[in-house]
Each structure stands twice: as C-alpha cells, then as structure tokens.
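debug: dumping io for the single-chain case to check the tokenizer round-trip. Nothing else runs in this session.
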Amino acid sequence: KKNLMLQGSDLECANLVGTDFSLTDLAGANVKSANLEKATLVRASLEGAHAEGASFAKIEAYRASFANIIAEGASFAGAELQRANFAGARLAGASFEKAELGRADFDKAVLTGTKFSFANLSRADLSGASFEGPAVFERAFMFLTRIEGLDLSAATGLQQAQIDLACGDSSTKLPSGLTVPSNWPCPQEQD
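debug: decoded output
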C-alpha cells in the first residue's frame, strides 16, 4: 500500500518489514520500537512522529521528511536517505552507520551520541545541528559536508582527511589534533 494518509496512526511495535509507504503521510504517527526494516518510504512524511527505538535499517527513503521526528536510539543503519529532511529531529543515540545521506538536511537536529560510522555524508548539511556530547564519524565520507559553526570537539573517529573534504568555518570546533584546512569556508552551493 502506498500513497496512504496515516497521520497520527498508532503503529507502536508493529512489524512493517518491507512495507511500501511511498508518498505516505505518517506525520505525527507513533512508530516507537516498530520494525520498518527494508521498507520503502520514498517521499513519505514522518514529520513529528514518535520513533524512539524504531528500526529503519536498510529503508529506501529518498526525499522523505523526518522533520521534528523524535527518534532517540533508532536505527537508520544501511538506509538510503538521499535528500532526506531531518530538520529539528531528535536523534540522540541514533545509528546512521553505513547510511547514504547525500544532501540530507540536519538543520536544528539534536545529534548527541549519533553514529555516522562508514556513512556517506556527501553534501549533507549538519551546520545547524547540535552535538551536546560525542558523535561517531569513523570512516564517514564527508565530501563537502557542511559543518559550519559546529562544536565537534567531542566527536570521535574524525580524521584530518575527512575535515579537509568538509566545509567548515572559523567557528567550527574540531577535536584536538585536527587543524582547520586552508580551503575553508567553502562556497555556498546552488541547488
């Protein structure tokens, strides 16, 4: 079933493995601890949904909106999330390990303890996000990833090569041992 109107639905602990929710409106839905592994959420909306502890592992969710979602401890491991909108999302402790996050928007998202190990963050915008503690970036691909103004001093797994590819500015705080590249700040990209 796709293109459904399921705003505010209670799907807590539901087994939704492989479900096609393309173009579906799940705004404000309760998907706490639900298993959406390998579900299709292309252009779906989960704005303001409650998804604490949910599994979004290996989902296909190009251009999906997760704006203002509450997804602490959720797993997006191996998910296809190009151009996804995570503006205002609460993602503390969430896992984006091996996720495809090209051009994803994390404006005003809370990313404390979030794991981006081996994730593709090419052209993703993290610049308005907040890290009130460590986040893991081990071997994440950060080509033109926007990190302007971020305090990444507690981040783990960051290497100089990642920082050299990313886009920061004079207010970006890096972990000790890493230096600001001479090519910062990057030019603004036209979409």
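debug: round-trip ok. The chain has a mean pLDDT of 94.
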